[in-house]
Design goal:
Layout: H1 2-14, E1 24-29, H2 39-52, E2 55-65, H3 72-81, E3 85-91, H4 95-100, H5 107-119, E4 124-131, H6 138-150, E5 155-160, E6 162-163, E7 169-170
Parallel strand pairs: 1-2, 2-3, 3-4, 4-5
Antiparallel strand pairs: 6-7
Helix pairs in contact: 1-2
Amino acid sequence: MNDMVQSIAREITLRKNYLAGEKVETIYFGGGTPSLLSEDQLNLLLETIKENFEVDAEAEITLESNPDDLSIELLQMLRSAGVNRLSIGIQSFRETDLLLMNRAHNAVQALQCVSDAKSAGFENITIDLMYGLPELSPEDWTENMKIAFGLGVDHLSCYSVTVGAKNCIGFNDQAK
């Protein structure tokens, strides 16, 4: 992972003229699981960005995460590093769905991580949910939505499951 972070930092430096002096207003760490970055790795990437681009003082800095990654310690580290928005791949609040999707977290962690993020000072939180799962009834989906709305998150992204040949279930890249 260190080699990958070093490569990303080099790529950022190589592209320092890309924006031709425009301010960076959004930094998004996503794709894969950037919540696995160490504090040093995350700080290196942020420092490299700030050294090579003009970053707005109010820039939104988002990091994608999974509920099972979000310990209180990690959340505090992320806030300390400057991350001010979390995108959490909850996918469902139902154990049945989480098991079907082979998610590492459970329904309790799905709820707890949002509460912990708020306690750590995150005010801008988005969560991802999946619909169209084989055993997810309209009533179950409604319940998932009620829970999501009850959490008071700022943004909700909903993704459909696709069913392929021979009843194979494929999840989009948000459901890792």
